[in-house]
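Exercise 7. Given the encoded structure of a 156-residue chain, write a plausible sequence.
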């Protein structure tokens, strides 16, 4: 029995345990007519939920742009990063530190890009399909913002 056939059995309630409330997974590739309709709706529909989702995606795109610049520096595509001429700011020192390369042995800017991409995808997915929010996702976002003031104080 393949994994897919086992999952199908469980989802349909034919397997042991008969889990309640599971729905079949969406296909990884939609047929062309569905994709055309989704494209039109996501780009042109004006609802409060879509507007909120667009704001979240816009914020993560801004964060991704910043992390893209850091990744370009950390991987040697650009020789230096511009920095605010204010005390306590030193992008070159922070982004070239050993800590910036410790996790998985790669530049942390690249990891942040991956994280932002996954978060954007999950934001679109949960808002679209579930019409609900993930309390853990919201907690992670709030904790990220809460970490900013102590991180800035620690940099002084």
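Solution.
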């Amino acid at each position: 029995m393949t994994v897919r056939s086992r999952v199908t059995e469980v989802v349909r309630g034919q397997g042991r345990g008969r889990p309640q409330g599971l729905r079949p997974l969406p296909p990884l590739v939609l047929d062309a007519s569905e994709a055309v309709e989704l494209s039109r709706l996501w780009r042109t529909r004006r609802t409060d939920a879509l507007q909120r989702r667009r704001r979240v995606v816009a914020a993560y795109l801004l964060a991704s742009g910043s992390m893209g610049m850091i990744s370009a520096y950390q991987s040697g595509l650009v020789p230096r990063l511009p920095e605010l001429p204010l005390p306590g700011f030193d992008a070159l020192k922070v982004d070239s530190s050993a800590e910036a390369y410790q996790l998985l042995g790669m530049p942390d800017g690249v990891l942040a890009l991956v994280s932002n991409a996954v978060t954007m995808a999950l934001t679109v997915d949960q808002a679209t399909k579930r019409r609900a929010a993930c309390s853990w996702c919201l907690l992670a976002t709030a904790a990220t913002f809460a970490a900013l003031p102590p991180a800035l104080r620690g940099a002084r």
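Remark. The chain has seven helices and no strands. Students should compare their own answers with the one above.
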